[in-house]
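Researcher: We are triaging several targets before committing to wet-lab work. For this one, the compound of interest is zinc ion. I'm pasting the protein sequence and the ligand SMILES. What I need is the predicted three-dimensional arrangement of the protein with the ligand bound, expressed as structure tokens, so it can go straight into our comparison scripts without reformatting.
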Amino acid sequence: MTARGESERGLRGPDFVPLLDGAAHVTRFAPSPTGYLHLGHAYAARFAHDAARLTGGRFLLRLEDLDPQRCRPEFAAAILDDLRWLGLRFDGPVIRQSQRLPLYRQALDRLRAAGVLYPCFCTRKQIRQEIEEAAAAPHGPSGDRLYPGTCRGLAEAERARRMARGEPFAWRLDVARALALTGPLAWYDVRAGWVEVDPGALGDVVLARKDVPASYHLAVVVDDAAQGVTLVTRGEDLFHATPVHRLLQALLGLPVPRWYHHNLIADRDGRRMAKRTGALTLRHLRARGLGPAAIWRLLEPAAESGRTHPLAVAP
Ligand SMILES: [Zn+2]
């Protein structure tokens, strides 16, 4: 069977039944060009692609290249080449976050004007210490201790003085204040159903830094709205980030998509695939003579079983 035929058949047919409600879904694949795509990316791209194609919608591509230290043009070129090779055609132009900084700045200014941001002058080391010292530092859903809000209570005069002095700082979202503005929020995941935003599970996340003027959270929310994405498909490791995105959408008056957090593809030992898993990159598998159809066949058991990938072929 050709790659194209496999594409049309759909990798996870039954899982897309809830999407067949007559709406044409706009989805996106949004990798960071910090390495070569691996099997986990192929799965995520295919998932977004199929959700769009099966519903007569559109499949978009966005390169999340905000981090100039880690992103490289050769990886961006390789992403386009790998998608072409896989037979996953996307619609419209490629969006690159590095070219959209003024839009993120506008969103940040809007949040500042709404009074829901504060500058945080803490270094990483200080934050670790503050978390240790704050016995009641809240835990996030992943079990990590959240930022205890040390800089939230700084006096306005001190903020102004430290900023004027050129001290580096990050802009953090004052979640309590933000939720007081928006009221209770909920979001819809195709697999999990309605999920209420739990204020206690959200830390005061960073939305911008001095070196990188927009965080992942801010850029994703701005871009999904600008690209008209109606269904955000992504791995379940980002489930905990979605309440923050829902909150930002409410604050910025942006349309609210639906989400579909899918299972992650793991390696033979059950570990999440990372970019350092060189042997599982599409480049490597391709060099060993595998074609796109073989890639999809490899991913099929993973799609059915949930987490683990029976990668018997991995060298
Ligand atoms: Zn701080």
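Researcher: Any quick observations?
Model: Strands lie at 26-29, 58-63, 95-96, 117-120, 170-173, 186-189, 193-196, 206-208, 231-235, 258-262.
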